[in-house]
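Support request, please re-run this one:
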Amino acid sequence: MIVELEKVVNYKDIGFDFKLRLDSIVSFFQEIAIHHSDMVGYDTETLKSMGVAWVLNKLYVDVTEYPILSDKITVTTWSSGISGVKAFREFIIRRGGIEAVRAVSMWTLLDITSKRIKRIPSYLSEAYETESFQATSFPIASYKVDKNPEGEEDLLQTVRFSDFDTNMHMNNTAYVNILDTALRKYIGRNVEVNDFFINFQKEVGFDVEKLTVKFSSQDTDVLYSINDAEYICSKGFVRV
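Re-run finished. Output below.
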């Protein structure tokens, strides 16, 4: 099943350069993924009543061209496979019929009470009607960043109330906003990201007030980690 949403890039979605922000891109992805679940009868409330929730584990985003203010865009998504404890979802954003952003994501099904990952039941796999093609060739299932950033400078970021979702965990878009903000301090405010990867490793709870972001360069990648006082909460790479 291929799902599409027609959207317009609004003022709230852009940065100072009038281009669609990274966190806004991820917000569009989140919106259409939820819309897909709603369409097949597994909205947020239904999943909650079942004691489970979809949790984003990994995301890779490749930006060819940034949509700008007032652009009409088409956001497309589909399930590209569900097996065992892993579910894969593809995304494309088109501007004027041309692909501007491509992405792939990996999800898990979380037991809300035990906080453990569950095997995804066959009826869920059947409901989402998986497709056999991908938006990008990025090997998200196997890819991981082994090396942690070694930067000496910790870029401090404040966690806000609006960063938290209905599960009282920091929303995926907030991680990307924190990354983007810190990256502009690290490289410069005019930096433009070509592609990035994020692996969510530990939830940020409502009691966390501050996070730090570390960066280091490795070949063409800028490695990063987002950390609370004790642990790495997410890490990945950015290419600019």
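The chain has two domains: 2-128, 155-239. The mean pLDDT is 93.
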